[in-house]
Structures are given as C-alpha cells and as structure tokens.
Amino acid sequence: MLFWPVYGPTFLISAGQGAILPIIPLVARDLEASLALAGLIAAFRGFGNNIFDIPAGMIAGRFGEKLSMIFAGVILIISALFAVVAMHLVELSVVWALVCFSCTIFTLGAASSLWQVARLIFVTQVCPENQRGRGISLVGGFTRAGRFVGPLLAAICYGFYGLESAFFIFAIFIFLSLILVVRYVQNTGTADERESSSIGEIVTVLKSYRTVFGRVGVAVILLAVARHSRDIFWPLWGSEIGLNAQEISVIMGLAYAVDTVPFYFAGVVMDKFGRKAAAVPCLFILSITAFGLIFTDTFLEMLIICLISGFGNGLGSGIVMTIGADLSPIRGRGEFLGAWRLIGDTGQSGGQLMLGPIAALTSLGAAIGGVGILGLCGVIVFIFIAPEPQAFHKLKSRK
What we know:
Elements: H1 3-20, H2 24-30, H3 35-63, H4 65-88, H5 94-126, H6 132-161, H7 165-184, H8 191-195, H9 199-208, H10 210-228, H11 230-240, H12 245-259, H13 263-273, H14 276-293, H15 299-314, H16 319-327, H17 333-361, H18 364-384, H19 389-398
Helix pairs in contact: 1-6, 1-7, 2-3, 3-4, 3-5, 3-17, 4-5, 4-7, 5-17, 6-7, 6-12, 6-13, 6-16, 10-17, 10-18, 11-12, 12-15, 14-15, 14-18, 16-17, 16-19, 17-18
C-alpha cells in the first residue's frame, strides 16, 4: 500500500509547492527586480535541483530513502521561513533582499531534489514492473492534485495576509508530510547496498548508460523545458496582461486540477502501449498551447489555454519518472536516478533560465514561442530518435 508512505506525502509537498510557485517571480518583482531578473530568480529553484541531483542520488543511496526524505523536509521548512525573512529585508536593502531571496529559492530546489530522488528510489523498488506505469502515474496524479489545492488555498490567503503567507502554507504542508514519512516509510535497500555508494559508482553508471542519457535524455530535456517553463511564463504573462496575483493563482490552480484528470489513463497507456505513446501527445499539446498563450489578453482566454495545457501535461503524468525507473539498474539505482533527475532538471532549469534573458532581448511572447518550438523538436526526437525505454533496457540486459 503506497498511499501513506508515497502518495500522501507527495500530495502535501505538491500542495505546498503549488502555493509558492505562482508567486516566486511576483515576489521578485515586488522586491524591485526587473522582468529578466525575476525570471532568473524563479529559475534558481531549478538550478538548485540541477546542482544537487547527483549528490542527492549518492546521499539516498548511502543513507536510505527514509532518512533522506526527513533531512530534505527539514531543509525545505527552514528555507521557506528564511524566504519570509528575505522579503522583509527590502526595508533595509533591496540588493540584500534579492540576494537572500534568491539563495532561499536555490535551497528549496536543492532540498526538493533530495526528496524526489529518495521517493523515486522507493517507488521503483516497491512497484512491480508490469504495474510501474500506473504506480508512478499515481505519483504524478497526486502531485497534480496538490498543485491544484495549493494555489487556490494560497490565493485566498494572499488577500488577507500578503504573498508571504504562501511560504507559511508551504512549511505547514511539509511538516505534515514529514509526519507520514516518519511513520510509514521504510528503507528498501540493504545496509551493504547503501555502503557501496561512491563517486566511482557514479562514474561507472554514467559510462554504462551514456547511450541512454544521450538519446532518451535529449527527448526528456525538451519535455522538461516545455513542461516546467510554464511555472515561470504563466505568472509573468498573467502579469503582462494585467492580471493580479489572485487571478494568476486561480488560473494555475484550475489548470493543475485539469492536470489530474487523465493521470490514471496515462498510466494505463504507458503499461499497455509503451512510454512514448504517452509522451508524444503530452509534449505536442504543451507545445501548441505555448504558442496559443501569446495570443491571449484576458483572464478567460488565458484560463482556456492553461486548462488545455494542463490536460496535455496530465497525459504525461509520471512519464519521466517511469522512464527513469525502467532504465535504472538494480545496483547503483540511487546513483542512476540522481543522474536521470539531472537530465530532466537540466531541461527544467535551462528552459526557465532562458526565458528572462530572451524576454529582455526580444519580448516575453517571443520567449514563450521559443519554448513552443523546442517542444515540437522534442516531439520529433521522441518519435524518430529515442527508443522505447522498456525495449532499450531489455536489449541492454541481454548484452
């Protein structure tokens, strides 16, 4: 039964993240950051993911999933509280406020990486291979359900307590998730397996799977660009067309609600027809709606485009985690999944980092259109270049 050790904590953490994601670039703007700098600061979360993905795999491989999740949760709570402190530093110095806020967003990303790697190791170990698509798609489904609840709850609080209330909501949800982890999560590996984690193990895994990372990884990077850039360009575009924080949070919350609808269907498709059968339509819809967004200029128009995008994203619920689980070896699984998350997070942070500078040099609409173009390139890579992960793994096993 995975509800209490996996799905419950996943929902709570995602609800907390959903509360803060819409307002990170908005807080940066309130701290007098430019449009480009606000986009860069928001991307620091993805950058923290990138920097810490491989160390997260080593830590989880060495100390086990449970202790890793607990440590990550504590760091997340502390970082959220420091973000509130940083917001008040603007009264003393705008520069220091922006620097401190950027550091807390970076730390949130690093701690999230450790949590997610440890969770993925746990799910991969306990899910039977023939049910893995459905099992992991449920992780994606509960993630999306949390992303629906978080922004809507935060939108209510913004009007009464200001943007900083989102970080308190985040801290509360993380604390509740830690209670479930402490009570229900048990390590799946043996002590001997955990002691084997090392830099040498990382190097061995990277060499053995360089073809996987080179072919399937490119497709995953482009999917991550299209998927995660929305966390930044949705709030920025909403602000560009004159929407306030509450309206933007409502749009994102409803989009994440629609995101939850097809998640079980996505798992069935992955298990019956292969991982690419879910990835291709997901990425195609994300790409088309990115183009569509730049033609919106009202609340209702933006809401419709974001709802369609949310449904498309839901078709790929858990796809990156499932592909990583398919390809991961039994020995060195933590190291592999840490490297795998680095690939996905490279797309996440890379897409987010490019939005601000491109928007500053051209326009926000051009930056969003660029994301759509990259997404269509990803569709081509998935169809013609990336092999089906299950077949690729079986071929490698025979060798």
